[in-house]
Amino acid sequence: MNKDSRRNFGVGITIFVAIVCLVSTLVLLSHLNKEGIVFAQSDSNASKFKAIRDQYLQSWENFGFQSIFDTYVVGGTNRGYGVYEEHVSNLSSGSNASSVPSGSNMSNVSSANTFAPGETMYLYVEPVGFTHSPSSESANTRYTIDISADIIISAPNGTELASIIDLPIIKVTSHQKNTELSLILTLTQIKPFPIGDYNIKYVVKDKPSGRTFDITKEITITK
Length: 223
Known about the structure:
Blueprint: H1 3-34, H2 42-63, E1 66-73, E2 114-115, E3 121-128, E4 133-134, E5 143-154, E6 160-174, E7 183-187, E8 196-206, E9 211-221
């Protein structure tokens, strides 16, 4: 066999092997589909998911603006929805009993709600029922979530001691109607609170709709 013949023979073998591999692949895919494995149906699955989500969002709009969960957390540990480290005070052990003022209700307050003078308080909140305010762009609609809060500090007898009004919490615009949202409501003791018990009322406001909900926490400040 001369050189040209060998070259042509080699090319022919390569083409033949490629054809055999292609046919084998198609046969394998056909067999897998018969066994119930679905290929290349991402568009169909996406449509099904969208239909389920649309049903959920219809219920969402009638559910009402409210908190389904809230707790004090360690600052800087919140990394998204459900990702946080719960605040647990190191001041609530028996060795600190002498620091609790006479008449304090500290024994009725969770250690998560016990803080040192000057310690910043981070309240993690999971709200539901907030508004997805659509943009005016008809070709590419986006949705804005805009939430603020009032924070009112009172003595146990109800006397208001201080307040922060219309504190911006979150304003975000998305291509989707996001529902898994977490908030952090931060209260900084610019001047350390005197040792004692306090009621902290958080009035969370859905600005597009004007709807609100309240969260009231009993806290103790102790050394």
